[in-house]
Design a protein that fits this description.
seven-stranded mixed sheet, three-stranded antiparallel sheet, 15 helices, 12 strands, binds pyridoxal-5'-phosphate
């Protein structure tokens, strides 16, 4: 059988740093025999909720599951509308559809790439139940303004913080500000559990609901039904889902979280280096942080405008790939995906800012595993691509 060869020099986009403590912890968990949801998940929930300053944390198998259950906890169902951004991963909008509700998109601000708060009120109807902002790339949305609108129209707020573990808004960490916040620990995120997510909240009723919905809708004690305290009978009180996180995953997350500060510093160094080195090139770089906020620096996204750069975004990505550098696109706007076009009749031109970004955006490597040596190689390659007339003439 032909083996897929892995090129060791290839810089894989979003590669996580997996270190000895989590490897040992996973082995310990495997040896313990308790692979499912148990004490490690409880510990990870305590650690993450403590880190973001929320009362409750409910670990799940993905951020997508978190979004779905958060919407259900808010009572979102058929006939309801949820306001969100088109410049996001499909999971944000899909989770709204999973509840039988309709996503209502509001275009983004060109500079922040976050939902344009000034356009939210116009999108509110009698059917609106929730505002679901996404902290794009780790940059905080304008939470005060969103809260004000939500209060005025009696709406709930669910934050998609898949990129935003560590993001701060006015001195507070994202995760403690609104009704519900959903984080992702997918392999490319600031800290990882392989697959994994968590919802944080200060609302006990929401916390209980999510915990129960996440494990088949079984009554709370069912989480412990096979523990050393003896078998517990359970009752199904909602038709729930199988969304629970395993102790194997939490074993990774517990140690990753301990190093979040160290990883932040590493990414900040690369971020500043990119800012300095790419400033004179024909690229549009991330705009500076808004006052009173801290960017989680999850994605370093540049815009490649063909007229300005002399090369299209896709060609730019291909040239980097040929030099052994992986990149990402965050995002092709959701409304232009086939299902959304066909189901809702969306077309190009509906959300011009999201589309402008979607056509030009490319995320450069910026993960915990990335070294300054890698970053120098990436910058060297970008300079070669953008400044080398020979390549440009071929394009
Ligand atoms: C903005 C956004 N929301 C939600 C998700 C879904 O996260 P998960 O893969 O943990 O379900 C992602 C994943 O990349 C994302 O980028």
């Amino acid at each position: 059988m032909k083996k897929n060869k892995i090129n060791k020099n290839y810089i894989v986009f979003g590669a996580p740093a997996i270190e000895e403590p989590e490897i040992k912890e996973v082995v310990k968990t495997l040896r313990s025999g308790w692979l499912g949801t148990g004490p490690k998940v409880a510990q990870f929930e305590k650690d993450v909720s403590g880190y973001v300053g929320a009362e409750f944390g409910m670990a799940l198998n993905s951020c997508t599951a978190g979004l779905h259950l958060s919407l259900l906890a808010c009572g979102v169902g058929p006939g309801d509308e949820v306001i969100t951004t088109p410049l996001t991963f499909c999971a944000t909008a899909n989770s709204i559809l999973h509840c039988g509700a309709t996503p209502v998109f509001v275009d983004v601000d060109l500079k922040t790439m976050n939902i344009d708060v000034s356009k939210i009120e116009k999108a509110i109807t009698k059917k609106t139940k929730v505002i679901l902002p996404v902290h794009m790339a780790g940059r905080s949305c304008e939470m005060d303004k969103i809260s004000k609108i939500a209060k005025k129209y009696n709406l709930r707020i669910i934050e998609d913080a898949a990129h935003a573990l560590g993001t701060e808004y006015k001195g507070k960490k994202i995760g403690s500000l609104s009704d519900l916040t959903c984080f992702s620990f997918y392999v490319t995120k600031n800290i990882v559990t392989g697959e994994g997510g968590m919802v944080t909240t200060n609302n006990k009723e929401f916390a209980d609901k999510i915990k129960i919905y996440g494990l088949h809708g079984m009554s709370k004690d069912a989480w412990k039904r096979y523990s050393d305290t003896g078998y517990k009978h359970y009752e199904v009180i909602y038709p729930g889902f199988k969304y629970n996180m395993m102790d194997i995953q939490a074993s990774i997350g517990i140690h990753q979280l301990k190093r979040i500060g160290k990883y932040d510093k590493l990414r900040k160094k690369v971020w500043d280096f990119y800012n300095r080195e790419l400033a004179s090139l024909p690229l549009i770089l991330p705009s500076p942080d808004e006052p009173n906020t801290k960017h989680a620096m999850h994605l370093y996204t540049v815009l490649v405008d063909k007229e300005r750069a002399g090369i299209s975004r896709d060609q730019f990505m291909q040239e980097l790939h040929l030099r052994g550098i992986g990149t990402g696109v965050h995002f092709n706007p959701v409304h232009l995906h086939k299902y959304y076009r066909e189901k809702f009749g969306y077309k190009p031109g509906d959300y011009p800012n999201a589309e402008y970004i979607g056509e030009r955006t490319v995320s450069l490597p910026l993960s915990s595993k990335l070294t300054m040596r890698d970053a120098k190689r990436i910058v060297g390659a970008i300079k070669e691509i953008l400044l080398n007339k020979k390549i440009r003439n071929l394009i």
